[in-house]
Amino acid sequence: MRITYRVVFDDGTVLLDQPDPVELPCDARLMPPALFACARTLAVGETNTAHVGADEAYEERSPERILRIERRKLPAECVFEKGAVMHLEGPDGNVHPARVIAVEGDSVTFDLNHDAVCRSFSVEMTLHGIADLPVR
């Protein structure tokens, strides 16, 4: 399906705003049930909103994604403030957004859990087109 969409947390904070049409698979295995149900009811040109509960939105918060790093292992020029989002490079070379949750003497603690973990939100989507996947 080709859609535009806007994702808003229940507190009104906008998580994503996609004003240009993008192509996404309409697949129950890849979408929360409420979002899949909403997408399946749309006709081309229609707009609808689905509410996705915190229990079905993303994976659960993981304590393994909380990292405490010694300051000596971090770039000396970095200033760390609680609440700031920084980008940390993992051993695999991938970069991950991380929120600073504590700055304590010789260490900084980061939360690498996604901002949407354990939060409910609404998705307003407009369907711009439908296409079948090519047969493989």
Structure description:
Helix content is 10%, strand content 43%. The chain has two helices and eight strands, in the order ββαβαβββββ. The protein has a four-stranded antiparallel beta sheet. The longest helix has 9 residues, at 33-41. The model has no long low-confidence stretch (mean pLDDT 87).
Write the layout of secondary structure elements.
Blueprint: E1 2-9, E2 14-23, H1 33-41, E3 47-52, H2 54-57, E4 66-70, E5 85-89, E6 95-104, E7 107-111, E8 121-129
Antiparallel strand pairs: 1-2, 1-8, 3-8, 4-7, 5-6, 6-7
Distance between the termini: 18 Å
The residue-averaged pLDDT reads 87
Largest sheet: 4 strands, antiparallel
> Helical residue percent?
under 10%
Principal-axes shape call:
elongated
Number of helices: 2
| Uncertain residue segments | none
Structural class: mainly beta
Number of strands: 8
> Topology as H/E string?
EEHEHEEEEE
From the alpha carbons, calculate the radius of gyration and give it in angstroms. 19 Å
Tell me the strand percentage band: 35-45%
Can you list the strand order of the major beta sheet? 2-1-8-3
What is the chains' assembly state?
single chain
